[in-house]
Amidinotransferase
Amino acid sequence: MTSLQAPAAVVMIRPHAFTSNPETRDDNAFQTLANRSAEATSAAARDEHDRAVEQLREAGVTVHVFDDFGDRDTPDSVFPNNWFSTHPGGHVAVYPMFVPSRRRERRADVIEMLKQEYRVQDVIDYSGLEQDGLALEGTGAMVLDHIGRIVYTVKSHRADPILLERFCTHFNYEPIAFEARDAQGRDVYHTNVLMGIGTHYALVCLDMITDPERRATVCARLKETGREVIDLTHAQIGEFAGNAIELSGRDGLILALSSRALAALTPDQIAVIERSATPLPISVPTIETAGGSVRCMIAGIQLSRR
């Protein structure tokens, strides 16, 4: 079984110079510093990535892997979901990034592979808008409901409102933007740390949405599209429980998330997921020091095969 919400193929980037990026630390409260050498940290991240690829392939997901050999100073390259996204009907978007090191992650060979192996009608490239100081960091900044045609977006300098409107016009989505803060009152930098949407359920920390009316709207719209809302706590978000992605595997739907994230969920929450999908826990503790988890590592391919 496949779902419009759950791609059966993904792109992942194998890191060779991974580190917790100093350029993004100011607004990413999830980042921490690894307590070992750069070489050991990078090697551990690469091992975690390789095991994640292996687990996804074992589950029947097609994984296209590209190596990043670290010669471009791209410490966050393991998180490709921020610089491009793909959409049913053959559409690809390329995004402007907030900090210079992340702009260097964009690569033509990934787009060329998509064109060769999948039906690509057009590539809409917003990246030139970086010159105007604008950013819209892909499916980190936007959590897409492909079934309800809604884009959920936390307001931040990584999600410019003008660009968001432009994206929604091009790709036929309705934008729902809101402010969100963590338990310490810090602004949330990416929407996909507090929200993940599956086919029949949605993981979201409603308490992080600061405006009560907006909070009610988000909850109502998720339910309108047939999802059961799994309301996460601040503590669960701190364990990356919102940073999950549903995929179509060989035997049905799976929910890829980190081992840490799954351990933070309650039995009742897991039971809701398991009614339609099988959780696939992946251990990525080193990669999580950079402030992203399993969902950030996976760029879904929502395109038809050639």
